[in-house]
């Protein structure tokens, strides 16, 4: 689809800011960030003034690439060209700095605009960014400030909050926040929230509770959740639940190599050397692959 859109775009006799912005957004959303930035350079060279929608896509592309130098340039471009700073653009700037490794600059931008915000997007960006960098206490402190304001929270807010709890081992706090989603804020947890809770409980050694959490989910667990449970079982030596987790993981992804490694380690720790060796041989014969990690843009 994006290739067809590109052909149509190139055939257009005239292009306005909306057509340029749509094409740049298309590249960003299909994870072709370099093409998005190249097209933005073409746009700027053609004399078309970008707007805040254009710059959100540009900043998202830069965040994906993690190129701080380009991010600083884009931020300066916004200021120098007096592009209006709405909440989405502010969130994109904060998110970009966080994902490019400059969390202090992200915080500085947030503090400059926090009292001007009318939506939760910039708050989500800094809460998630701080959690990503391991600054759980500050992330939760900003969340507490947000709770006192007349701003509607959403599901992304709680991904950041639960991630912060997970990184700092705040199990009871995480459980309270998770319950408050439905009971206080009327937000239905999705699979990512359940994944955070499984990770939080598993890291704390509460493997049985993590397994119960999976059983209580209104949706089917995915590879990430079963893998998280298996990793916790390996860390804390729970062979019974570990075997169950691996079985479910293999049903979803038979070639998931990381699960075979974890299961082999778990069996070896339990003294089941022959079974551990068999797991390794199976992995080598099938040449199983590791699943790559990923990071979502969260606002």
UniProtKB/TrEMBL annotation:
<dbReference type="GO" id="GO:0009451">
    <property type="term" value="P:RNA modification"/>
</dbReference>
<dbReference type="Pfam" id="PF01535">
    <property type="entry name" value="PPR"/>
</dbReference>
<dbReference type="Pfam" id="PF13041">
    <property type="entry name" value="PPR_2"/>
</dbReference>
<keyword id="KW-0677">Repeat</keyword>
<dbReference type="Pfam" id="PF20431">
    <property type="entry name" value="E_motif"/>
</dbReference>
<protein>
    <submittedName>
        <fullName>Putative pentatricopeptide</fullName>
    </submittedName>
</protein>
<dbReference type="InterPro" id="IPR002885">
    <property type="entry name" value="PPR_rpt"/>
</dbReference>
<dbReference type="InterPro" id="IPR046848">
    <property type="entry name" value="E_motif"/>
</dbReference>
<dbReference type="GO" id="GO:0003723">
    <property type="term" value="F:RNA binding"/>
</dbReference>
<dbReference type="Pfam" id="PF13812">
    <property type="entry name" value="PPR_3"/>
</dbReference>
<feature type="repeat" description="PPR">
    <location>
        <begin position="16"/>
        <end position="50"/>
    </location>
</feature>
<comment type="similarity">
    <text>Belongs to the PPR family. PCMP-E subfamily.</text>
</comment>
<dbReference type="InterPro" id="IPR046960">
    <property type="entry name" value="PPR_At4g14850-like_plant"/>
</dbReference>
<dbReference type="InterPro" id="IPR011990">
    <property type="entry name" value="TPR-like_helical_dom_sf"/>
</dbReference>
């Amino acid at each position: 689809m994006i290739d067809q859109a590109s052909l149509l775009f190139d055939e257009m006799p005239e292009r306005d800011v909306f057509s340029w912005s749509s094409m740049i957004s298309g590249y960003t959303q299909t994870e072709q960030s370099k093409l998005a930035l190249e097209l933005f350079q073409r746009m700027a060279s053609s004399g078309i003034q970008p707007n805040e929608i254009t710059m959100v896509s540009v900043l998202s592309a830069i965040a994906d690439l993690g190129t701080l130098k380009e991010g600083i340039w884009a931020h300066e471009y916004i200021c120098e060209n007096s592009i209006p700073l709405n909440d989405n653009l502010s969130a994109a700037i904060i998110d970009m700095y966080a994902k490019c490794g400059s969390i202090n600059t992200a915080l500085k931008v947030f503090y400059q605009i926090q009292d001007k915000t009318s939506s939760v997007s910039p708050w989500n960006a800094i809460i998630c960014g701080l959690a990503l960098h391991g600054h759980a206490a500050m992330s939760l402190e900003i969340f507490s400030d947000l709770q006192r304001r007349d701003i509607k929270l959403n599901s992304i807010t709680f991904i950041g909050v639960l991630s912060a709890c997970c990184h700092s081992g705040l199990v009871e706090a995480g459980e309270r926040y998770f319950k408050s989603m439905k009971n206080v804020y009327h937000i239905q947890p999705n699979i990512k929230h359940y994944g955070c809770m499984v990770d939080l409980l598993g890291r704390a050694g509460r493997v049985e509770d993590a397994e119960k959490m999976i059983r209580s989910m209104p949706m089917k667990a995915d590879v990430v959740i079963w893998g998280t449970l298996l990793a916790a079982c390996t860390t804390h030596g729970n062979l019974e639940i570990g075997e169950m987790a691996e079985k479910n993981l293999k049903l979803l992804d038979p070639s998931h190599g990381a699960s075979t490694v974890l299961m082999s380690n778990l069996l070896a720790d339990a003294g089941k050397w022959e079974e551990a060796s068999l797991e390794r041989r199976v992995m080598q014969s099938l040449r199983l692959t590791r699943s790559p990690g990923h990071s979502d843009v969260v606002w």
